[in-house]
């Protein structure tokens, strides 16, 4: 791991607080009514969602914030990331955090965490539509427009055949020395 990755705690703190600290406090201190599901289904299903959501979130944070000098909220990434989970959905960080939060809500049978997941998803959708997508479109132009046509925003579906006019995929923002 490079020194640049170690020196940037900000990109890691937001998901840790949003998908770690807040739901833990909600689940322990203010769980709300329990979720009406059998315990084995809650534990296994919740565990799968926590692992999948954590993987998606960590991969997205790594590709956008730790492999590039992208400050939080200041400007778009230096490179359009289309690798990893970004090949499956355009917003894997928010989708991953939402899956992780739903998994925690199931695990702890805490409806308060489910409400938190809904709030996080709502804020993410508004931020994507009003800030991220317009910024990426103005920065990357036709490349982002093509990516937007090819990759769904939130829920994966079967890939469509690529047209001859499609802009080729970039591998990711990893420096070439890796």
User: Largest sheet at a glance?
Assistant: none
Cα shape = elongated
Rounded mean pLDDT is 81
User: What is the structural class?
Assistant: mainly alpha
What characteristics describe this protein?
178 residues; elongated; disordered C terminus; single chain; mainly alpha; 61% helix
Can you offer a commentary on this structure?
The chain is mostly helical. The protein is built from six helices and no strands. The protein has helices at 3-6, 10-29, 39-66, 92-108, 111-140, 142-150. α2 runs parallel beside α4, α2 runs antiparallel to α5 (111-140) and α5 runs antiparallel to α6. The longest helix has 30 residues, at 111-140. It is elongated. The N and C termini lie close together (10 Å). Mean pLDDT is 81; it is low at 1-7 and 164-178.
Short description:
This protein is an all-alpha fold and 178 residues long. It is 61% helix and 0% strand. Residues 1-7 and 164-178 have low confidence and may be disordered.
């Amino acid at each position: 791991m490079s020194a640049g990755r170690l020196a940037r705690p900000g990109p890691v703190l937001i998901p840790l607080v949003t998908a770690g600290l807040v739901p833990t406090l909600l689940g322990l201190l203010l769980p709300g009514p329990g979720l009406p599901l059998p315990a084995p289904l809650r534990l296994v299903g919740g565990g799968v969602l926590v692992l999948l959501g954590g993987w998606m979130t960590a991969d997205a944070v790594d590709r956008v914030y730790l492999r590039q000098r992208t400050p939080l909220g200041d400007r778009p990434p230096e490179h359009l990331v289309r690798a990893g989970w970004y090949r499956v959905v355009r917003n894997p960080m928010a989708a991953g955090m939402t899956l992780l939060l739903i998994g925690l809500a199931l695990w702890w049978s805490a409806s308060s965490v489910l409400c938190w997941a809904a709030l996080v998803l709502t804020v993410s959708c508004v931020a994507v539509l009003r800030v991220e997508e317009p910024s990426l479109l103005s920065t990357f132009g036709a490349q982002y427009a093509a990516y937007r046509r090819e990759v769904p925003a939130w829920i994966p579906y079967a890939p469509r055949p690529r047209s001859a006019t499609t802009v080729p995929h970039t591998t990711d923002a990893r420096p070439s020395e890796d």
